[in-house]
Amino acid sequence: MKGIIFNLLEEVVTTHISEKTWDxxxxxxxxxxxxxSLGNYPxxxxxxxxxxxxxxxxxxxxxxxxxxxxxxxxxxxxxxxxFFTAHTGMRSFLLSLNDVIHAEVxxxxxxxxxxxxxxxxxxxxxAHDTLIMHxxxxxxxxxxxxxxxxxxxxxxxxxxxxxxxxxMLDGADECLFVCRFEKRA
Amino acid sequence: MVDPARDExxxxxxxxxxxxKARMQAEEIAERFTRDALHDPLTGLANxxxxxxxxxxxxxxxxxxxxxxATVVLDLxxxxxxxxxxxxxxxxxxxxAVAKRLTEAVRSIDxxxxxxxxxxxxxxxxxxxxxxxxxxxxxxxxLAAPFxxxxxxxxxxxxxxxxxxxxxxxxxxxMLRRADMAMYAAKREGKLGHAxxxxxxxxxxxxxxxxxxxxxxxxxxxxFILHYQPIVELPGGRITGMEALVRWNRQDGGIVGPMEFIxxxxxxxxxxxxxWWVLDESCRQFSDWRFRESxxxxxxxxxxxxxxxxxxxQAAAQxxxxxxxxxxxxxxxxxxxxxxxxxxxxxxxxxxxxxLTALGVRMSIDDFGxxxxxxxxxxxxxxxxxxxxxxxxxxxAESKEGAALVRAxxxxxxxxxxxxxxxxxxxxxxxGRLQALNCRxxxxxxxxxxxxxxxxSEYLTSG
Lengths: 185, 463
Description:
The complex is a heterodimer. By secondary structure, chain A is α+β, with helices and mostly antiparallel strands. Chain A is 51% helix and 16% strand. Chain A is built from 8 helices and 4 strands. In chain A, strands 1-2-4-3 form a 4-stranded antiparallel beta sheet. The mean pLDDT of chain A is 88. Chain B is elongated. The model of chain B has no long low-confidence stretch (mean pLDDT 86). The A-B interface holds A 3, 19-20, 23, 26, 32-39 and B 11, 14-15, 17-23, 25-26, 29-30.
C-alpha cells in the first residue's frame, strides 16, 4: 500500500485525536512508522495500524475505516485541490474516479493499486439524483470508500445518502453503494 | 513514576526519528526514479536521454579545451533473426553481453549507452589520432569474439560509425546524426564494418534520400524509358538481336543512366517492379517490330534480370505473362544475369535459373570474366549465351594478354556450345581481332549505340 494512505492516517489521528495517540497506535501496532508518500508498505502494516486505531477509539474496524476516510478527505483536498476544483458537484466528482483521479494517482504514485469503481444510473425518476456505485478491490476497503464519499459530500457541501446493498466483507463479489444526492439549499 | 516532560521529549525524539527515516526513504525513491529515467532497465547502460546529456557536457568541454571527442554509434547485425529464432529472452541476454563487452572495452570515464533496440552508442573523450585507432580496435574486438547463445558460440557482427569533434560540432543530436550516417555507410561494407564521418557524407546521404523518393515517384509516373542496342553477327554485322536498356527520363529534365539509379533500385527493392516493367515493355515493343517484317522473325530480345527478380517467386509467371501477352514464343527471349549476381549464391541461382529455362527461355551470363565463376559451375548452369565483359574486349586488339583471355573465353564457350557475344566493341581493330578469334557475335558503339524506339525502328528498316 502506498505511503500516502499511512500519511493521511497519521494526519487524521494527530489532528483529530492527538500526537500522543498516534505514538501509542504505532507502538501497539508494532511498526516503526516511518512512511514517505511515494513508498510502498505492506498491506498488513496498514491492517495492524487500523486494528490499533479501532482499539484506541473504541470503534469497530469498519467504523474506524469509515471515520478515517471521511476525515481524510479535507487533507486530500488540501494536497490535491485540482481533483476537486474541476467538479461542481459530487456526482461528477465520483464519476471521474476511475478515468481521471485514479489515472492521475497512478502517475503520481507509480505502481499504485487502485480500486475499480463502476457506475450505473438508474432509469426513470431517480436518474438525476441517484448513482449506483460498484466497488471492487482486492483489499476490500469499502468502508474507506464510504468514508471518502461522506467526506467529499462535506467538501462539496452536498448531502448524500449512501446505502450499501452488498459488501465484499460479507462475502459478496463486489460492494454496491446507492448514492442519493440532495443539493443543500 | 511517569514524568510528563520526559514523556513529551521521548515522543518528540521518536517523531524526529520517524521523519528522518521517511526522508531517507523519499531520497532513495527519488534517486531510483532518476536512475530509472536515465538508464536502460535491461542492460543498466545509460539511455538516450542520459547519453545526450553526457554528450552535451563533453561537447562543451571539447569546445573549451580543444581536446577531440569521439562518438560511436553501433548496430548489431542479424539481431532480429536471433530474437525471432531463439526468443526475446535469448535476445535480451545477448544485448546484456554486448553491453558488458562494450563497457569493458572503454575507459570508465567514457559513456556506453543503449539507444534502443540493438543500437548502442559511446562517448569517448580525449581522443587523439592514436586514441581513435585504439577505440576502433577495441570496439571491433569487443564484437569479434563469438557470443554464447543457448550455450553455442555464435558470431554476432555489427557495424559502427564514428564521428570526431574538435570543437567544431556543438549539438549532441548533430553529433549523433553524423555518427548514424557513418554507421549506415559502414553497414554497406558488411560484417564488422566501420566508417568515420566525413563532411561529404551528409550531402551524399541527402542526395541518396532524394533519389530514392524520386525513383519511387518515377515508377508510378512511368518516367522510365527503354533504349535498344543491336547485337550483331560477325563477320558482316547483320543484326541478330537486341538488348533492352532502361533509362530514366526525369520530369525535371535530363536522362539518368542506369549506373546511377540501378544500385538504388536494388537497395530499395524497387528493382523488382521496375525489372518486370522493363520485361513487359520490351516484349511489347519487340513484338511490334518482329511482326512488322518477316526478316525480323529470328531476332532475339535480351533483357537484364536482377538477382532479386530471379529469386522472385513470381518470376516464371511474370516471364510467361509478358511473352504470351504479346504473342512471343519463349525461345525469342534471352534473360541476362551478371556473373557476379549468379555467384552470390550459386546453388539457389542454379535452381531459380532452371525454373526459367524450363519454360524454354534462354539465359545469358553478362559481364563474363569479372565474377570468378569456376568452370565447373559454368558447366552446371543452364546458360546458352556468354557475354565477354567490355574490360577484356577493350584490350583485345592492343595486348597479347588481352587477346589471350578473350581467346580462352571463346574457347570455353565453344567447348560448352554457348553463343559468345563480345560486349563494348568500339573500334575497327577490335572487330578484326575478334573475327580472327572466331567470335561470332558482338555488341557495341562500333555497330550502334543504344537507340530509342524511333531510331531502332529506322535501324531495323534500313538494315
